[in-house]
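[agent] plan:
  1. take the single chain provided in the ticket
  2. run structure prediction with default settings
  3. attach C-alpha cells to the ticket
  4. add a short note for the reviewer (M.T.)
[agent] executing step 1
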Amino acid sequence: MDDASQAAEYPPAADATVRIWDTATGKLLNILEGHLAGISTIAWSPDSRTLASGSDDKSIRLWDIYTGKPYPVPLLGHHNYIYSLAFSPKGNMIVSGSYDEAVFIWDVRTARVMRSLPAHSDPVGGVDFIRDGTLIVSCAGDGLIRIWDTATGQCLRTLVHEDNAPVTSVRFSPNGKFVLAWTLDSSLRLWNYVEGRCVKTYQGHQNEKYSIGGSFGVYGGGQQAFVASGSEDGNIAIWDVVTKDLLQQLEGHNGAVLGLDTLSSKDLLVSGGLDRTVRIWHAEEDEPIQAKEEDTD
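[agent] step 2 finished; step 3 output follows
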C-alpha cells in the first residue's frame, strides 16, 4: 500500500472485481471490472498510479487508478490460476506466481514475459522483489523458498525448514537482508537467505488452512520494527521483529484475516478477511497499532 489515500479491496474478490476505497472516508471510489473469473491477488505499482490484478481466468490485468480503465493488453502466459504478484521497485517489471507451478517475470511496458522460471513442484503461493529489484523470492506448497537472480533467472538459494510445512507467502525485509515466510504450521519464519538459516520464528496466531499474508512496519518513532500478520481466529497479530514478543492482538474481524498491509509513514494498517470487510487501523503515539478501525462492507 503506497498511497495512504486509497486502498484496494484486500483480499481480492471472487466476483471478478477490484474495489478502490478512500482510506479517510471509507467511500467506495471505483469498481474495476474486466476479469472473467475470481481475483486472488493484487499489487500496487511503486508510484500508486497502476494496480495489477491476477485472476483465475489465467490473466494479469493492469489498471489505471485515475480512470478505472484496464490497460489495453492483458498479461497472458500462465496456464493456470494467478495466485501472487509483485511490482519491481522501479515499476518496470512484475513477477507472478501461479498454480501452474511457474514464476514469470514480465515487462510492464510491452506486456510480454521476459523470463519463465520452472520454480516449484506445487502451486506458487507467494513472490516478492528485493528493494533494488535484483532478486526475487518465491514459495510454494512444496515447502521450498527460492531466491532468484532477476537478470539471469538463476536459482541462487533454496531454503527449506526441517518441518517442511507448506509455505504460502513471502516478503523481503525492508533492508533486503532477510525473507519473512508464512507457513501452514502457525508460524512465521525470518530467514537469513545468504547464510541459508532461519534466525527468528514468530508464533501466537493461527494458520493451518488458508494462505495468509502480512507486512513489516515500524513503531517507537521509527526506531523499532514490527511484523504484522493475519490469523484464522479473526485477529491480527503484531510482533517485535528483534525480540519476537507478541506486542498486540487486534480484534475486529469475524473470520480469518487473509490479507494485510502497512504504510508506516502514515501509521496505517489495512486488513481484509472472510467476513467480507476491509478494516483500516490507525496507530496512536508510539504504539505499533491501536485498535481503532473503520470497516467497509
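[agent] step 4 note for reviewer: The CA atoms of residues 81 and 150 lie 23 Å apart.
[agent] ticket updated
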